[in-house]
Amino acid sequence: MIPLFEAQEHVLSKINRLQATQVPLLEASGLTTAEPVVSLEPIPAWDNTAMDGFAVLSSDTTTASPATPVTLEVVGTIAAGALPPDAPKVTPGKAVRIMTGAPIPEGADAVLQVEHAEPLENGHLENEPLENEPQNKSTPISQSAGIQLSQSVPPSTHIRRAGEDLKAGQIAVPTNTTLSPAHLGVLASIGMQEIAAYPRPKVAVFSTGDELVSGGGPLAVGQIRDSNRHSLLALLQDSAEPIDGGVVPDDEAAIEEAFSRYAAQCDAVVTTGGVSMGDFDYVKVVLDRLGDMRWMQIAIRPAKPLAFGTIAGTPIFGLPGNPVSCMVSFELFARPALRKMAGCGDLHRLRVTATATEPLTRRPDGKTHFARVRWHWSDSGFVVSSAGGQGSHQLSAMAGANGLAVLPDGDGISAGGEVELILLRE
Question: Distance between alpha carbon 309 and the CA centroid of its chain, in Å?
């Protein structure tokens, strides 16, 4: 048997990044950048307001207080979208009504939030009764001739300065960045329509075996339903473009045709079964003839057997046939390799230290065990408990797990003990 790290290093050493291409921005989510993206303009492009309110001179408001309110004349309105050539200017004693995102008018150095302004009409407060006027008359603040304020507004209040987010010439998105929705927003804000990124590898998945059936209906004696293909196609979603190759019968010519076709059409091929030392399977016969393969027995449980190699340069992953072993093997070997092909920097799942809430037992056998566990976050950190049966055929426990506890050779972990945890999902 060979150590896990040696097998992982061997696989990754044979993997190369795919060639970067220009990708439309709307198709780039989840891809990894092949070069840095530089902003050619400042973001924001001009000073603008963060609030609905009034653009003012802060010096006009210095003495404003509830006891000594300040009155300003409203000389115009600026809406979001543009600063027209005849836009009003802010001069001493004047204010301009302004909407969120609108450019700051000339002369202003602060914005008074609309909630902090009292509207005036003809020099009077909106709610102050005028002689011979109905007392229920109300003037909207957007139409008032002036405002009264009872607090000072320091310089730069509620103003977003040009270049505050990004300066012209600044790197907006570094190279080797996996693009999130927020990154796409940044790229759109600087006018990018396409970017240089590594594509998702196209990965074919097919199962082999006359005993495999798909769909419902009763099973004949000796038949099993093909579950591995469905699990693998789903696991590929976050790092690759999966191609469903279906079920290939136990026929040497059919298996050879499948491997040859998908190796030529795709960036990688994944299949399961026929990789154990005791197996006699057409998969071995075909792969040894077509490819440069290494058949490994790795010091781990589950997922001890692994076949890996290439056919005409295309990586081939032969994973174990037991469903849990298949998924664990994918996580440890295929997923990191495919992420390397896609240009990702973080190849492996995040590992953290957790506390076991119950014993996670095992027997010494010279292997590292990967126990299927449930984890959650508590006041003391990550805590884990068994997800159920640990047999390599017990897929329901794998479905209930959101992590793998790494158990070194020995007797396992006692309740309250620390254990290394691989986070599979939340």
Answer: 30
User: How many residues belong to the chain?
Assistant: 426
Q: Helix or strand or coil: residue 5?
A: helix
**So what CATH class is 351-423?**
mainly beta
Per residue in 31-79, pLDDT (tens digit) is 999 999 999 999 999 999 999 999 999 999 999 999 999 999 999 999 9
The SS3 assignment for 233 reads helix
Looking at CATH, the fold of the domain delimited by 4-17+200-341 is given as Molybdenum Cofactor Biosythetic Enzyme; Chain A (3.40.980)
Burial class (CB in 10 A: 0-12, 13-18, 19+), 5: exposed
d(CA 145, CA 76): 9
Query: What is the helix (H) or strand (E) element at residue 290, kind and residue range?
Result: helix 282-290
- Which of 204-218, 230-244, 248-262 has the weakest average pLDDT? 204-218
pLDDT at res. 358:
97
Summarize pLDDT for 11-37 with one digit per residue, the tens.
Answer: 999 999 999 999 999 999 999 999 999
Numbered ranges of CATH 3.40.980.10 in the chain: 4-17+200-341
In CATH terms, the fold of domain 48-160 is Molybdopterin biosynthesis moeA protein; domain 3 (2.170.190)
At residue 127, the pLDDT reads 45
State the DSSP string of 19-49: PPEEEEGGG-TT-EESS-EE-SS-BSSS-EE
What's the rounded mean pLDDT across residues 126-141? 43
What's the pLDDT at 296?
95
Query: What homologous superfamily does CATH list for 21-45+168-198?
Result: Molybdopterin biosynthesis moea protein, domain 2 (3.90.105.10)
Whether 110 and 155 have beta carbons less than 8 Å apart is answered as yes
Please state at what angle helix 252-265 crosses helix 282-290, rounded to 10 degrees.
Answer: 50
Question: DSSP code of 293?
Answer: E
Give CA–CA dist 309/262, Å, rounded. 14
Q: What is the pLDDT of residue 143?
A: 53
Q: What is the mean pLDDT of residues 398-416?
A: 97
Q: How far apart are CA 294 and CA 268, in angstroms?
A: 16
Beta strands in 161-289 (DSSP E): 171-173, 194-198, 202-208, 212-213, 224-225, 241-248, 268-272
